[in-house]
Structure of DUF5020 family protein:
Amino acid sequence: MKHLLSFVFFALTLLSFNVANAQNYNSTFGQVAYGSGNKDFQFGNNTEDGNMWLITFDHVSEWSYGGNYAFINFMAADNMIPDTDFDGNETHKGPIRLYTEWSPWLSLNKITGKDLGFWIFKDFSIEGQLNVSYSSFYALLGGVGMTFKTSNYDTFLKLMAYYKASTFGGNTDHLAQITGVYDIPLSRKLGVRLQGFFDFIPNSNYYWGTDFLAQPRVLYNLGQHFMPDKFTKLEVGVDVYMHYNNFVSVTAPQAAVRLTW
């Protein structure tokens, strides 16, 4: 727990950090979501009736040679089902659980000072990632990323391939993981967009089998009618948590409110 709290402090510091160079992109959002179907005992968002609050703080920023991405999830419900280890022993109980990630990257375009993109590729990157949970789970990832060219400034597509060392209860799995991140306007006129990610772990003697985790979100920019600038957004929409493997099959729709600045 001490290591988790130290990382949370670091991540919160990162979330509040403002990039001095105005040419570097940075964005932060806070989101509150509530929904049903939360029965994922593997990752801890597991309640008796499936209903749960999810509070997220999320930040992305660029610097001279790359960027940082981090988020913190607080999962809350009065009727959380206690976690157990593989032997059935209770490991955690309580109304609040926490999960956080930090993903730094180095950009080939930024390091070289040249536009090395070609064909459908805008940039290539060296990727890292650290996952830390309230339980004894943590993971270290390293790999490469590809950012795709798009015809519009408000569209983002990126694909990453990782080596992942995933540790839980003192046991470490060595895995491959494919991660995709996207932000696609569905209607600029209406202010509606599709945003989210997916993680895919192919089966390679992994206890859970082939694993697919995704969280697509459809968001409507309600704040476009009264917010002071186009970079500050108040959005409402639907956030769908999806997780499937040999033991878990969860689809959890959630109503969401998000403030981005």
The chain has one domain: 2-260. The chain is about 5% helix and 60% strand. The mean pLDDT is 88. Residues 2-15 form the longest helix (14 residues).
